[in-house]
Write a structure and sequence with these properties.
By secondary structure, the chain is α/β, with parallel strands linked by helices. Helices cover about 50% and strands about 15% of the residues. Pfam families: NMT1_2 (PF13379).
Length: about 325
């Protein structure tokens, strides 16, 4: 009887120790991710969460939406997040301020701009010259959407500060509602908002900034250099899960993808999500590979310089780490 009792106690103790060890392991593998906004543009990230690819790598990903590049970077620099999903231009801004612990881009998620030009009135044969003399509700000054917007306008011989009334002093999270309440003739919007507006008759998509601007590391995953050095294994697992998700998105239909990401967009119906996913897939917005190329990095800085927002040119090797992606791709 005593032997049985001791054996039982031993089993109970071993079980509790195993549970405790598992709990500690899960805590050590927790990754806090701050995304700049909630958009179908970031579909592979949501697929990695919903399909359990992060879980398969032993990661417990906690996702929060910061609603703005400045807020996202603040969360990262203040250790409120481990990894940020935000425009690569923010890492250049931080570097130019003399950061002792620079923010490093280690994986690309999108390779084009993700915004669309939405007109208040229906236009059957759109021409960029139609923006001249109009009121254009743009994105936040210094952010990637705004810089790409200005780059595309100039490409079509439109001076954004002389040929139209440019509004760019509205908070990122309030741009859509401002247009919905009557501000502006045209607006630059992310999805699914653009398609929702179109479906509700509040606006009409007339052009894609992504198709016009070319390849650029528009949104990438980044972390402080110190975090990557201390947690290289975790970052590698994070990248591996993302790569699985990117391949899954590339190989599956827009309808199946929409079903997977719908929990992240409860206010959008499945039909709208499918349309948006299809639009992004067709214009090649979702990166099939996570490696940020030097060519796209140079294009990013050219766009920033054109917009007058490049504080200084930064060498590709200083703020882009390709070693982790290369390691994952080889495996």
């Amino acid at each position: 009887m005593k032997t049985w009792f001791k054996t039982g106690i031993a089993v109970i103790i071993s079980t509790f120790m195993l549970i405790a060890m598992t709990a500690c392991s899960q805590k050590e593998s927790k990754v806090r991710v701050a995304e700049v906004t909630r958009s179908i543009f970031y579909t592979p990230q949501y697929v990695a969460i919903e399909k359990g690819f992060f879980k398969e790598e032993g990661l417990d990903v906690e996702l929060t939406t910061a609603w703005g590049g400045d807020k996202t970077m603040t969360a990262l620099l203040a250790d409120g997040a481990d990894i940020a999903l935000v425009g690569s231009e923010t890492s250049i801004y931080v570097y130019a301020q003399g950061a002792s612990d620079p923010v490093i881009n280690f994986a690309g998620l999108t390779r084009t701009d993700g915004t669309f030009l939405v007109s208040r009135e229906k236009i059957d044969n759109f021409n960029w010259d139609m923006l001249k003399g109009s009121t254009f509700l743009g994105q936040r000054k210094g952010g990637m959407p705004q810089m790409v917007g200005e780059f595309v306008l100039k490409k079509h011989n439109i001076d954004p500060h002389a040929d139209l009334e440019l509004i760019q002093n509205i908070e990122f999270a309030n741009i859509a509602s401002a247009f919905g309440s009557g501000t502006g003739d045209f607006v630059q919007l992310f999805e699914p908002t653009a398609s929702i507006f179109e479906k509700e008759g509040k606006g009409h998509i007339v052009a894609s900034f992504g198709e016009e601007s070319g390849e650029v590391p528009y949104t990438s995953f980044m972390a402080k250099e110190s975090y990557i050095k201390k947690n290289e294994e975790i970052v590698e697992k994070f990248v591996r899960a993302l790569y699985k998700a990117q391949q899954w998105v590339d190989e599956n239909s827009s309808k199946d993808i929409a079903k997977v990401v719908q929990p992240f967009f409860e206010d959008s119906d499945l039909e709208t999500l499918e349309v948006v996913v299809d639009r992004y897939k067709n214009q090649g917005s979702f990166a099939k590979e996570m490696k940020i190329s030097k060519e796209s990095w140079d294009n990013l800085q050219a766009i920033m310089e054109e917009a007058g927002e490049l504080p200084e040119k930064v060498d590709y090797e200083k703020l882009v780490n390709t070693q982790i992606v290369d390691k994952v791709m080889k495996k």
